[in-house]
Amino acid sequence: MQTSPEFRRDRARLPAAERRRQILEMTTRLIAERGFWGLSMQDVADGCGLTVPGMLHHVGSKDSLLVAVLEYRDEEDARSLAGKLGLPVHQLWAEEPRRVTLPEVCSALVRRNAEQPEIVRLFAVLEAESLAPGHPAHGYFKARQRRTLDQFAALAEGDVPAPRELAIQVVALMDGLQIQWLREPETIDLVTAWDAAAARLFRP
């Protein structure tokens, strides 16, 4: 089908940064629906009004696009989480001086995730798929898990006798509740379920 002159002008006007953001948002939505293995580069390009070569000019390969999507979402979520906690983003995980506690961070995280089920679904799908060593996000999720456990353990340091063990339990509980919520959102309220579980997990 021939592209209309109006569409060509619109495409030409988009700055590179805005076009890249559009591609990442479209890819996010499609992966959340289909998983990485079901992702078609043609569908991403069509959704952005581009040809596949034109889209790849902005993002490189399919594998690099996936990692770019994950990094982009991490940056967006870090900014949102810092805002909910009333902190500048660069102080979110600062060890000295400690600005927030682990229960506060977890509560803000859960409330943030409850507002964006499509993003939580994206990460749940990709995290499961990336257990296969050949998956392009295998290394990303392995490093992300280690970083999250390190950050949570650091926040719990001095408050509990085994901060690393607590961090592992927190991540397991949070991930498990999110899976149940995604599967039955009409019967499970993520925030309510987390608050009830956190009252037991973080009890003095």
Keywords:
10 helices, Arc Repressor Mutant, subunit A, 72% helix, 2 domains, mainly alpha, 204 residues, disordered N terminus
Please summarize what this structure is.
This protein is mainly α. Helices cover 72% and strands 0% of the residues.
Unreliable spans are 1-10
Largest sheet: none
Distance between the termini: 66 Å
- Order of secondary-structure elements: HHHHHHHHHH
Strands, count? 0
- The mean pLDDT is 88
Strand content: under 5%
What is the fold's blueprint, element by element?
Elements: H1 5-13, H2 16-34, H3 41-48, H4 52-59, H5 62-85, H6 102-114, H7 117-129, H8 138-156, H9 163-183, H10 190-201
Helix pairs in contact: 2-3, 2-5, 2-7, 5-6, 6-10, 7-9, 8-9, 9-10
Protein name: AcrR family transcriptional regulator
DNA-binding region: 40-59
InterPro entries: Homeodomain-like_sf (IPR009057), HTH-type_TetR-like_transc_reg (IPR050109), HTH_TetR (IPR001647), Tet_transcr_reg_TetR-rel_C_sf (IPR036271)
Overview of the structural elements:
With 204 residues, the protein is an all-alpha fold. It has 2 domains: 1-60, Homeodomain-like (Arc Repressor Mutant, subunit A), CATH 1.10.10.60; 61-201. It contains 10 helices and no strands. The chain has helices at residues 5-13, 16-34, 41-48, 52-59, 62-85, 102-114, 117-129, 138-156, 163-183, 190-201. Helix 2 packs across helix 7.
